[in-house]
Structures are given as C-alpha cells and as structure tokens.
Design a protein that fits this description.
The chain has helices at residues 10-21, 38-48, 61-65, 74-83; strands at 2-5, 27-30, 92-95, 98-101. With 112 residues, it is α+β, with helices and mostly antiparallel strands. It comes from Alloyangia pacifica.
C-alpha cells in the first residue's frame, strides 16, 4: 500500500495511524516534497474513479489564484495539482489498482 501523506495534516496522520493499528506499514510518499507528475495524477484519478475536481482542495488560496473553478476541466485541474501539490486532497491511499481519498480517514481501511 502507498499513502500520499502530509504529516502536518491531522486527517493524514489519523489515516496513517489507522493503517498502522491494523498492522499495515504503507510506503509513505510525502507528496508536498515528492510531487506526483501529471501522469501519476491521471493514474490516481483512474484508480479513484472520480472527476479531478474531487481530488482538489478547492478552499486553498492557490486554487483561486491559479484561476481554477469547479468548472475547470480534468486536464487543467490535474496539471494544476502537478504544478502545485498543495492542491491535492489528502491523504490518498493506493492498493493494487484501487485508491481512496481518506476523507474521513477511516476510508483508507476499505483497501485492506
């Protein structure tokens, strides 16, 4: 299992703790330091099975500053997340070809 993680985020820390409590030690990727590429974000979107807007933190100042809106197309949103990883909703857990956004954090347990 892989977890896109931000240690400063309480929800991300909680998701990691839930996995560890179940005996799972995911490969932790600190996505703010090791930003996913456009192609990785596109693959994540496929694994999540959601429109790109559901992967975006729309309340971040960077969302508005980049000229984005809830009507922006998927490619535009994915490129924005690749350029500004702070826009990626977190945490994101991956197992095999499936993924979930850990909102609420308990959702990561769906992959076990």
């Amino acid at each position: 299992m892989i977890l896109w993680h931000n240690p400063r985020c309480s929800k991300s820390r909680e998701a990691l703790a839930l996995l560890q409590a179940k005996g799972v030690e995911p490969e932790v990727r600190r996505y703010l330091e090791d930003a996913p590429s456009f192609d990785e974000l596109k693959a994540a979107q496929v694994a999540l099975g959601v429109p790109a807007i559901e992967m975006v933190r729309t309340k971040e100042a960077e969302f508005k500053a980049a000229g984005l809106s809830r009507d922006s197309d998927d490619e535009t949103l994915l490129r924005a997340m690749a350029e500004t990883p702070k826009l990626i909703e977190r945490p994101v857990a991956f197992a095999s070809a499936r993924a979930v956004i850990g909102r609420p954090p308990e959702r990561v347990l769906e992959l076990l």
